[in-house]
Specification:
360 residues, mainly alpha, two-stranded antiparallel sheet, 2% strand
């Protein structure tokens, strides 16, 4: 919205700053951060009053989690409200990619909100049916993947770009949209699996958002893509503003989610943020890089899949408990140990993901 102030510029005044994506990204970051600090405590108070007993704690979970009983959930509302406000304020609203990612984020947030609401109302860890959540997620992701394909330049439409191999494109044809759906829905659920300890999910999400903010800015500039030998995707640079807003909103939320958490993100936040990362990856043609940068989310998801399949086949468990962060809890690791070490792993994976921009 503030971009339109450039119409008042003569080229040498303060209004000219609003032309620059980097300046507006900084504005979006601080707007979302301040929003989180201002509205965090009032939102938590409202959630605590409305929810009463807070998020239900699994009876078969680690014993340390029983001390968290009564902690409200749906804290993802703070992140979503902050990043939406900042994005609408600082991004160019005539950019199709911004609207695709924002709509995916809000839509998955609604799915997560419905699930959280059902859990709190029933005081049960079983919320909305998994099949229903997947169905709505597939519909949303299909629309987003198709819209992204329409906005991609003709040379990249329905193509899968491979990291490291600079000139290699795999023509997925009619399978590009299903592939994009898999990336978006998979990312949403992967972040959801990771959200199980105080601060565990939000920091890796912010690290991934920072990484993809850099990628979006780079692939959206002709000069950068020529230097890096990556494919040019016009207009994706504006997604840096969304990523900056996500980081600002995430930090505002982490202030209250740091151990011991005053509020949980809930599916409201985890599904929305995961879906956003998936949508950005599809928009920037860096879907495979998301699997590297978000490697922690991939491992968390695989641990659940392996556990379920192996148990159905043998009646035994591979892990003491899945997702894998609970396995380490059962082994005696403290919550801060798990969280900080997983943060370190996420940062390392992000650096590897960024390196694919130059390693060709």
């Amino acid at each position: 919205m503030l971009y339109w102030l450039t119409a008042l510029s003569d080229g040498g005044d303060v209004f000219n700053l609003f032309r620059y994506i980097t300046f507006r990204a900084g504005g979006a970051f601080f707007t979302a951060l301040v929003f989180g600090f201002i509205f965090g405590k009032p939102l938590i108070n409202v959630l605590r009053r409305k929810q009463g007993k807070g998020q239900p704690i699994r009876s078969d979970g680690p014993e340390a989690h029983f001390a968290k009983a009564g902690t409200p959930t749906m804290g993802g509302l703070l992140i979503i409200a902050a990043l939406t406000t900042a994005t609408l304020l600082w991004a160019r609203l005539d950019n199709g990619f911004v609207w695709i990612v924002l709509c995916v984020t809000l839509s998955f947030a609604l799915i997560g909100f419905a699930d959280d609401y059902a859990k709190v109302r029933k005081q049960s860890s079983a919320g909305v049916s998994g099949k229903v959540r997947i169905l709505f997620g597939l519909v949303i992701a299909t629309a987003a993947a198709y819209a992204s394909a329409v906005l991609h330049p003709a040379a990249l439409t329905h193509q899968l770009a491979l990291p490291i191999f600079k000139d290699t494109l795999v023509n997925l044809g009619i399978f590009f949209v299903p592939f994009g759906v898999f990336v978006i829905v998979g990312a949403a659920n992967a972040v959801n699996f990771t959200d199980g300890l105080d601060g565990l999910a939000i920091m890796p999400v912010m690290i991934a958002a920072a990484t993809f903010g850099v990628i979006a800015y780079a692939v959206g500039r002709v000069d950068f893509t020529e230097y890096l030998d990556v494919h040019y995707v016009p207009n994706t640079g504006e997604l840096l503003i969304f990523c900056a807003a996500l980081i600002g909103g995430g930090l505002g939320f982490l202030w209250y989610n740091a151990p011991p958490a005053a509020v949980f993100m809930g599916d409201t936040g985890s599904l929305a943020l995961g879906g956003a990362l998936g949508a950005i990856a599809v928009a920037t043609k860096h879907e495979i890089v998301l699997a590297i940068v978000g490697g922690l989310f991939v491992v968390e998801t695989l641990s659940v899949i392996i556990q379920v399949l192996y148990f159905k086949r043998t009646g035994k468990r591979v892990f003491l408990m899945a997702p894998i962060h609970h396995h380490y809890e059962k082994k005696g690791w403290s919550e801060p140990q798990i969280v900080i070490r997983f943060w370190i792993i996420s940062l390392i994976l992000a650096m590897i993901g960024l390196a694919t921009l130059k390693v060709r």
